[in-house]
Structure formats: structure tokens, C-alpha cells
């Protein structure tokens, strides 16, 4: 197959990129090794920055972020048994939307297929050959060889990216940090326990009370990275969650899904080489605290779409040359924010009494300061997309 842009990975970044390219009249082919059903049913994060919602508005009514999702004008930080509201509207006049990533994917896939996008599921990229006419060497669902020749290849194929090697020379090379904890995530059938999300620092570790709908809730608690999801009974899961959110009685209900989320910070050393560029998790990973992952992927795509427009419509390379530096500014701000929220809210296994008291001092510094609250609100709702 020949096309102008080959996009490896049909996550939020790859799908939105194909839409933005089509708006500029640039044809693309998107492949993903997963099935459509797998993509549309994998549970991921749930918070969209205001700028992400605005960009999704450009796919038209197919985006249900505003109709099915819910606007949230604040969150609560809880520590020492007391809740402190971060009022986004009052601090920065912005908001976020609670709308699960797999719903975003359903919307994007429906819109792309309706627009006639060449979108192929079950196609596994094996490697990318960089060069003037870069090629994606892949296999289809039956194992038959499949190749795409393009003018440009974009790796939007997630944290275990195959495309990364064509940019960095290795599948791993990057700035990297691990954390000595993970999140145990549950989905349960119950009404919301709180109007807004609660990020709770407790002596027993962190918990996050999030939501999905009027009848389904998403909650997480800090656990050891090697925790087995089967290790807890349902009653034990509720005990773990409840003891970390003192002051709020959690509304319990059947838990129908459990997963463990790993915590990593990663930025690839290089984000573009020749005619191949990386976006989203292929380029960087953040720990989940603060929900920056998908939003950051979408911010990359916005910058890359403009650069590809300049390259492919006007033969102008300047924006593409600037791509790594342009997106790195936001990537490292988001790296800092995600690390900061993580380190401020979790109980490190090796923390001393000094560390714990300092952490509470840090939380108090934020919630008792107009400027501290404003920094958190600004970062959480998302920095402007155009700078
Ligand atoms: C959710 C996940 C996050 O990492 C976060 O900071 C807020 C919400 C969620 O899945 O609902």
C-alpha cells in the first residue's frame, strides 16, 4: 500500500492525527495490531483536559465528551483526614471532563470509519525502514506480509513501541525513572461516593476516588508493584480503599474489574529522525497521578499535524525540525507535574518520619496558598495547546 502518512497505532494519538491530516487534505493509513473490540474495551484513564475536549470537538458530534462526559470544576486533595478543594473555575477559569479513554476511542474510530479512513485492525508492525520513502513492514491478522510505503511514518504505538527503534536506534533508549509502588484499580457498580474526585494522602498510602457514571465508579489504591489482582477478596479491597479515605464513607457495590497499573516516567532520547516521528506513549510515559498520559499524546499530535501539513503541502521542513524541541517543553512540564503529584501523594516504602512530615508540609503549602492551588489547577486543566 502507498500513502502519504503511515500511522502505526490506533490509539487516541494516531486516530486524532489521521483526522487532523484529513482536514488538511492529507491521506493516511492507520494500522493497529489489536482488534477494534480490544481497543474499544480496554479500560484506561478518564480525565480530559479542556484543550483535549476542544480538539475532539473538531470531529463533530461523534465526540460525546461533552454530552456523555461530565465537566469537573475541581478536585479534592485530602490529607490528615481533611479535604481541601482545588477550585479550577475560581483559580484558572478552566475545567476538565470526566470521559473514559475507551469512549474517546469509540468516538474517534466511528468518525474515522465514517470519513472513509483506511484503518486496519489486527495488523502488526514488525519494523520501520527509515529513509526518503520510509516503509512499515508488517503482517496482517493471517500472518501475511503487509507493507506501507509513505512519505512519512508516525509511531503512535504505545509504550512498547516498535516504531521507536527507527527513531532512537533502540527500543528502550531514553530518560527513565521507576517508582516503588503501583495502583490497584477497580471498577464497581455503585453510585458516586463524592461529587468530585478525591486524591487522598493517608498514613496507609494513596487512594483516588474517581468515577465513570451514575452507576459505575473507578477507584485506585497504592499497592506494591508485584501485587497479584487475585490476592484480595472483595471485602479486603473495600477495606483497603476505605481506610485510605478517612472522612468519606465509600458507597460499596460489586467489583467487576481489577487491574494493576505500573508507575514509570520515560522520555525517549530522540523524538524524530528523518522521516519518522514518535507521539504519545511511544515517545514518553508518565505515572497516572494527574491523568496526563492521553492529554499529552494529543498535545504532541496537534504540533505534529501542523508540521506535517507544512512538510507535505508546502515542502517546508522548519516546523518538523522544531518538533522535538516544541513538544519537549510540554512533555517535561507534564513529566514534572506527574512526578510531583505522585511524590506528594504517595507513601514511599522507605520514607522516614521527616519525609512524611515534609510531605504534609508540601500539601499544606499548596492548599493554603492561592498560588499553590492555581499552579495545580493550571497544570491539571492543561497548559494552552498552542505554545
Ligand atoms: C483517573 C485516572 C487518573 O490517573 C487520574 O489522575 C484521575 C482519574 C481515572 O481513571 O478516572
UniProtKB/TrEMBL annotation:
Keywords assigned by UniProt, alphabetized: Monooxygenase, Oxidoreductase
Pfam families: FAD_binding_3 (PF01494)
InterPro entries linked to this entry: FAD-bd, FAD/NAD-bd_sf, PheA/TfdB_FAD_monoxygenase
Organism domain of life: Bacteria
Segments forming a coiled coil: none
GO terms for MF: FAD binding; monooxygenase activity
Residues of the FAD-binding domain: 2-337
Descriptive protein name: p-hydroxybenzoate 3-monooxygenase
Lineage: Bacteria, Bacillati, Actinomycetota, Actinomycetes, Micrococcales
Amino acid at each position: 500500500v502507498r500513502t502519504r502518512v503511515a500511522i502505526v497505532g490506533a490509539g487516541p494519538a494516531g486516530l486524532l492525527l489521521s483526522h487532523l491530516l484529513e482536514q488538511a487534505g492529507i491521506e493516511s493509513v492507520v494500522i493497529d495490531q489489536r482488534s477494534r473490540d480490544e481497543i474499544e474495551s480496554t479500560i484506561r484513564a478518564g480525565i480530559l483536559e479542556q484543550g483535549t475536549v476542544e480538539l475532539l470537538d473538531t470531529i463533530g458530534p461523534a465526540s460525546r465528551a461533552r454530552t456523555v462526559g461530565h465537566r469537573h470544576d475541581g478536585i479534592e486533595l485530602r490529607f490528615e483526614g481533611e479535604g481541601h478543594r482545588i477550585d479550577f473555575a475560581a483559580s484558572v477559569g478552566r475545567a476538565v471532563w470526566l470521559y473514559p479513554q475507551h469512549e474517546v476511542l469509540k468516538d474517534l474510530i466511528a468518525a474515522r470509519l465514517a470519513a472513509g479512513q483506511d484503518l486496519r485492525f489486527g495488523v502488526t508492525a514488525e519494523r520501520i525502514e527509515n529513509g526518503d520513502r520510509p516503509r512499515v513492514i508488517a503482517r496482517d491478522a493471517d500472518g501475511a506480509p503487509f507493507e506501507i510505503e509513505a512519505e512519512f511514518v508516525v509511531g503512535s504505538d504505545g509504550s512498547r513501541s516498535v516504531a521507536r527503534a527507527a527513531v532512537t536506534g533502540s527500543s528502550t533508549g531514553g530518560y527513565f525513572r521507576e517508582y516503588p509502588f503501583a495502583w490497584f484499580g477497580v471498577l464497581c457498580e455503585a453510585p458516586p461516593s463524592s461529587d468530585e474526585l478525591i486524591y487522598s494522602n493517608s498514613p496507609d498510602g494513596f487512594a483516588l476516588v474517581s468515577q465513570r457514571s451514575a452507576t459505575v465508579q473507578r477507584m485506585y489504591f497504592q499497592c506494591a508493584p508485584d501485587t497479584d489482582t487475585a490476592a484480595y477478596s472483595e471485602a479486603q479491597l473495600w477495606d483497603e480503599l476505605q481506610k485510605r479515605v478517612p472522612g468519606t464513607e465509600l458507597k460499596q457495590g460489586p467489583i467487576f474489574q481489577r487491574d494493576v497499573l505500573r508507575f514509570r516516567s520515560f522520555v525517549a532520547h530522540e523524538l524524530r529522525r528523518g522521516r519518522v516521528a514518535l507521539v504519545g506513549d511511544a515517545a514518553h510515559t508518565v505515572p497516572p497521578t494527574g491523568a496526563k498520559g492521553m492529554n499529552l499524546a494529543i498535545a504532541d499530535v496537534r504540533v505534529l499535524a501542523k508540521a506535517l501539513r507544512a512538510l507535505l503541502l508546502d515542502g517546508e521542513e522548519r516546523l518538523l525540525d522544531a518538533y522535538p524541541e516544541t513538544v519537549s517543553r510540554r512533555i517535561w512540564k507534564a513529566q514534572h507535574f506527574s512526578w510531583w503529584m505522585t511524590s506528594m501523594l504517595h507513601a514511599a516504602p522507605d520514607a522516614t518520619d521527616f519525609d512524611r512530615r515534609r510531605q504534609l508540609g508540601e500539601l499544606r503549602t499548596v492548599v493554603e496558598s492561592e498560588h499553590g492551588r492555581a499552579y495545580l489547577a493550571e497544570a491539571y486543566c492543561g497548559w494552552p495547546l498552542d505554545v
